Amino acid sequence: MTKPEKLIVDGKRLDGRGLNELRPIRFKAGVLKRADGSCYLEFGGNKVMAAVYGPREVHPRHLQNASRAIVRYRYNMAAFSVEERKRPGPDRRSIEISKVSREALESVIMQELYPRSAIDIFVEILQADAGTRVAGINAASVALADAGIPMRCLVSACAVGKVDGELVLDLNKDEDNYGQADLPVAMNQFGEITLCQMDGHMTEEEFGRALDMAIEGCKKLHQMQRQALIEKYGEMVSPAEEAH
Ligand code: ADP
Q1: CA distances in angstroms from 167 to 158, 208, 214, listed in the order given
Q2: From the CB of 102, is ligand 1 less than 6 Å away?
Q3: 213 three-class SS
Q4: What was the ipTM of the complex prediction?
Q5: Ligand 1 mean position to 103 CA, how many Å?
Q6: Does the residue 128 lie in any domain?
Q7: Is the CB of 36 under 6 A from ligand 1?
Q8: Looking at the domain assignment, is residue 2 inside a domain?
Q9: How many CA atoms lie within 13 A of 33 on its CB side?
Q10: Does the CB atom of residue 128 touch ligand 1 within 6 A?
Q11: Does residue 70 lie within any of the structural domains?
Q12: Is 130 in the pocket of ligand 1 (CB under 6 A)?
């Protein structure tokens, strides 16, 4: 799409959303048979699959940590995920996203319970439409829970951007291309920010407001993640509970 004259008209965005509205989001936990945990997520036009393996033996062995599990995160964009074919394999961008996403999740994983082992998280972007790193973190968090990895809480993520001089929640692709700033944020349930990056420019006052909007967005995502886990596990009643 060529640059539209305006991205916000009468308080509405070109895709019809209000400034503070997320795109349609759908989580499905436990979709892959061979992974220990998984989650498929549609986040606007993004389609993301997360798979978790572990805790499992570490290869190569020298990466083992005697006191805790190591966490590995691989973010990968499929060749067909973007308009022009993406060259397969890691590049600088995917290496950076893998690192910051791992850091966003690591602090909630009880790594100390599994010394000498590895927890591997794979995030495959099947279709990309801006906000893939936050989509990946949301899906990975549900996949970790689905794998039964002990966690202190879930991690939720969303981005806030600046478009036509206004702050908007959850940028779509056109807003990402033609906007003035993009601020992806991840937050755990204790309200601790575990990822905060920024492209572009905002004033200090705008940054404060953007962060508040991102926090509210993360709270909504947390409810959806929780719901996805309840959908899969909610009906499971333990024999003890059934006896009552
Ligand atoms: P995020 O997906 O987390 O917003 P970026 O800001 O780096 O990360 O990317 C924004 C969007 O640009 C992506 O979601 C994707 O739609 C598009 N994009 C990223 N890398 C490529 C690429 N190699 N080729 C085409 N489009 C890309």
Answers
A1: 13, 11, 10
A2: no
A3: helix
A4: 0.98
A5: 20
A6: yes
A7: no
A8: no
A9: 0
A10: yes
A11: yes
A12: yes
8 in a domain, yes or no?
no
Q: Strand, coil or helix: what is 42?
A: strand
The CATH code of the domain that includes 166 is 3.30.230.70
**Residues with Cβ < 8 Å from 111, sequence gap 6 or more?**
68, 69, 70, 71, 119
C-beta neighbour count of 3 within 10 angstroms: 8
* SS3 of residue 235 by DSSP: coil
pLDDT tens string, the chain, 244 residues long: the values are: 788 889 999 999 999 999 999 999 999 999 999 999 999 999 999 999 999 999 999 999 999 999 999 999 999 999 999 999 999 999 999 999 999 999 999 999 999 999 999 999 999 999 999 999 999 999 999 999 999 999 999 999 999 999 999 999 999 999 999 999 999 999 999 999 999 999 999 999 999 999 999 999 999 999 999 999 999 998 665 555 565 5
Distance between CA atoms of residues 180 and 165, nearest Å: 8
Q: Is 132 in the pocket of ligand 1 (CB under 6 A)?
A: yes
- Which run of H or E residues covers position 166? strand 166-169
Local structure of residue 109 (DSSP, 8 states): B
Domain count, the chain: 1
Q: What does the alpha-carbon distance between residue 40 and residue 58 come to, in Å, rounded to a whole number?
A: 26
Q: How far is the CA of 29 from the centre of ligand 1 (A)?
A: 25
* Domain enclosing residue 86, as ranges: 15-233
The protein residue with its alpha carbon nearest to ligand 1, atom 10, reads 130
For ligand 1, is residue 129 a contact (CB within 6 Å)?
yes
pTM above 0.90, yes or no: yes
Q: Three-class SS of residue 92?
A: helix
CA of 77 to the centre of ligand 1 (A): 9
For residue 176, the ligand 1 atom closest to its alpha carbon is 10
